Structures are given as C-alpha cells and as structure tokens.
Amino acid sequence: LDTGTVATVKVSELREIPPQFLREVIAIPPQAIKCCLADLPPNTGMWTPDAVLWLRDTVMNCPEFSMKVVKQDGSKAIAHVYLFAPENFPDMDHSVNQKIKNADLWKHQKDVFLSVTPSGTTSTKVTSDAVSALRLTSGRLEKSFSDSSRELSSAVSTIDMPPPLPLSKTGELMDVYVSVACHPGHFILQPWKELHNLEALMEEMILYYSRAEEKPVNIEKNKLYAAKIENQWYRVIIKGILRNGFLSVYELDYGKHEFVSIEKVQPLMDTFRKLPFQAITAQLAGVKSQQWSEEASIVFRNLVEKKPLVAQIQSVNESTNSWDRKIVTFLVDTSLPDTDIWIHDFVSQSLVEFSKDD
C-alpha cells in the first residue's frame, strides 16, 4: 500500500498488527499513488516491450522526479500525470511524456507469441543426475546459448558482424541470467557461461574509448555502434534518430533500450565484433499467451529479473538478424536446496488467484 509493489511472501512471514497500533496505522493514508502518463499516442493498446522497458529504465535510473497532475480518474483511482526530471520542470517539451511520444517505440510489432504445445505439466524435479552431469565448479549448470533482441525489421549487412551464438538443442538444460524482464511474453536472457567474456569485453571497450580521440560519426538506423551510457561503453544498434540530437538505441548484449546523445556514439571497432551478441529475447513456455496484467507482470519480474536460472528451450523463432531471434523457454529456479521452482507453474497459480480477486 505504501510502495505500490506486488510481492510474494510466505504465510509464516505475515504478522497481525497489534490492536493498540491499529488507530495509528489507519490514520496514515496509503502512500503509493497509481499513475499513468497523460496524453500518450492514441490507440497504443498493450505497450510494446520497447516502450515498457524504456520507461522503466528512465524512471528507475533517476533518483527523483517532478510531477504535474492533469487529470484524476476517480473510478479507477488513477492520476494522469506529466513527469519531469527536476531540471526540466515544467517544460512540457522536455517531459518524459513528450520524450516517449517522440521515440520510435510504438511502431514495432507486439510480442510474437509462438505456438508451442507444452509437453505435459513440466513441474517435475530437475533430477540430481542431470544436474550433476552438467554441474560447473561455480555450482551452476553448464550450457551454451544465443543472442537476440527485438523486432528490428530492416536487414543489416553481415559484413563484420559477430558470429551468432549457437543455441542449445531443444529440451536441454542451460544456465542463464535474466538481465531484463518485462512480462512472461518478453524477457531477456544471457548465457551464464559467457558472462565473464562479456565483462572482459566491456572492460576492453572502456580502456579503448577512454583513450581514443572522439570523431564525428555518420549515424544510420539499424547499424552497429559503440555508445557510452552511464560511464560504460555498450555495443548498440540504432533504432531511431530523434530531432533533438538524441538517438534511440538497443543494447545488443543486455536487451535494454536507451536514449543517448549523438556525441556519446562512436564506431564499433572490429576487435569488439568478435563476441556474439549476448541478449536473448525470450517468452515463457507453459503459460497461455495473453495480454499480461500489471499484477502478473510484477510478480513475474520479482521471480526472475536479475537472477541466475536454468532454462529449457521449447522452440526457436529464427530470423535473418541474430538479435531478432526469439525463443520459447521454461525457466527453473534451482536456488532452494530441496525444491525446484518452475516459473510457469508459479505464474499460472498467480493468474488463478488474480482472477479470483476480479
């Protein structure tokens, strides 16, 4: 009620509020206010993952915002607002609302749901034999994986492109890290065993570009570049060229959407084109395709985002560009000593509970 966060807790962690404190608790109104951005493009329907992730990154990475309420919807208890970084208040042209309206985030296709028939209920335990056969010294499961991203429709020249990261065979287990989670229909995986190679690449890029002379760059959409974002250099593809000197880019190794100044973009040198792109666009197997509610999306993110998990691929939707490839996969949390949590089972159970509330 005070943070606006949906969380899953054990019953044993719940406590009743002592009667002597109830009056004081009731006297303080809930602090979380449900809001939506005002005056966005009409008929957007369900937001694209591009738009959702851009907004999340923009809001979460700024310690504070100024807000202008333009409308209150009493029936839904939602405030329609304009958001501003403190230095931009109250300039409407520099509001978060205007930036996201100008961004090239609404024109892409919505999630591509692949038709997969789950092979029965997959809530079986990942057997200890299978785990021990694939166990690494790090304590996780070994595997190799692939790269991918969002639906960037224009084909890109394969000259000086990194090789595609081979996907593991259907049904095999692999260790992954979930770098970004939007909802069960769209999240980003990275192959666990390649993370050290990615970290080494990032360090090399920092050393090179911190010493290299900055040069004017000819910017083209759907081309590869290096971009400086929060003191780190990333391999990116240009998704949109904005009118105010900013670019909309996609981080090919992390699956995040960012806005950067043209001045922060440099050519991607050949030496940094050898490691396959690490971001793998994925969809959760074992759940029915749908438009995901806020509650279901938040529960899913809390379960998987920024966590090492085990993946079991069910199918692959190939594409000309490696970052356009999308997989359907089961996810398993093996962090508990005695029980493996199959994420699709947990999500399905949550959907049942949410429907009861409705």
TrEMBL record:
Database matches in InterPro entries: SNase_OB-fold_sf (IPR035437), Tudor (IPR002999), Tudor_domain_containing (IPR050621)
SUPFAM superfamilies, per the entry: Tudor/PWWP/MBT
Pfam families recorded: TUDOR
Domain of life: Eukaryota
Every Tudor domain range: 1-38, 170-286
Gene3D superfamilies: 2.30.30.140, 2.40.50.90
This protein's name: TDRD7 protein
UniProt source species: Ciccaba nigrolineata
Organism taxonomic ancestry: Eukaryota, Metazoa, Chordata, Craniata, Vertebrata
